[in-house]
């Protein structure tokens, strides 16, 4: 009796691990488009690998119990088992601690929270591009600091270079949101908020306003073009002539 039960538990564990491996095969990561995005994707992946075996273990245990006791006419109450209770409480504690710490380290990353280190220029490289973003009902204005260039709706960023944004609004609350670059920052009247990124892939992405800001909210989007460093210099040059 005891042996067959332990064999069943072993089979359950093998099935759980096998199913987790199959799901992991399908969760092939795509190259991230920025440092921010890669930090967020890595966290998601880490948490997925912790959550998957747990979900499978719980679900398979449930299915097993339903099947095993399907016609049990004489159900017995669960007996006290302090060792088991301590084990699962401690295991839950360890998992929560892992989730909390993993999320904390991502939040403490200066690309995710520029002010996390107390000083917003911490870790920013010398050649960082500084862009003042002005949000308004309903559009965007990008002012390239020290370049004398201003652009509307289209944000052009050089690949492989730090970019520091500072945000202000002329009217109500807006939110700067570029999901593909892992960027999201609220823009609040009377305040200057910040964000930072370093794009790693060239491409064209969409910028959205992620804060309902009036009737034109749905039209408040723009494009973000990540280009090679030379293409970026050419673009700046072209804009200066205008
Ligand atoms: Cu808006």
TL;DR?
The protein has four helices and ten strands, in the order αααββββββββββα. The chain has helices at 2-26, 35-68, 82-107, 229-240; strands at 129-136, 139-144, 149-152, 154-158, 162-169, 174-178, 183-187, 193-198, 203-209, 221-227. The strands form two sheets. Strands 3-2-1-5-8 form a five-stranded mixed beta sheet.
Question: Could you explain the architecture of this structure?
Answer:
With 242 residues, this protein is an alpha+beta fold. It folds into two domains: 2-68 and 84-107; 129-240, Sandwich (Immunoglobulin-like), CATH 2.60.40.420. The protein contains four helices and ten strands. The chain has helices spanning 2-26, 35-68, 82-107, 229-240; strands at residues 129-136, 139-144, 149-152, 154-158, 162-169, 174-178, 183-187, 193-198, 203-209, 221-227. Helix 1 packs antiparallel against helix 2 (35-68) and helix 2 packs antiparallel against helix 3. The longest helix is centred in the first third of the chain and has 34 residues, at 35-68. It is elongated and about 85 Å long. The structure holds copper (II) ion. The site of copper (II) ion has 6 residues, from loops.
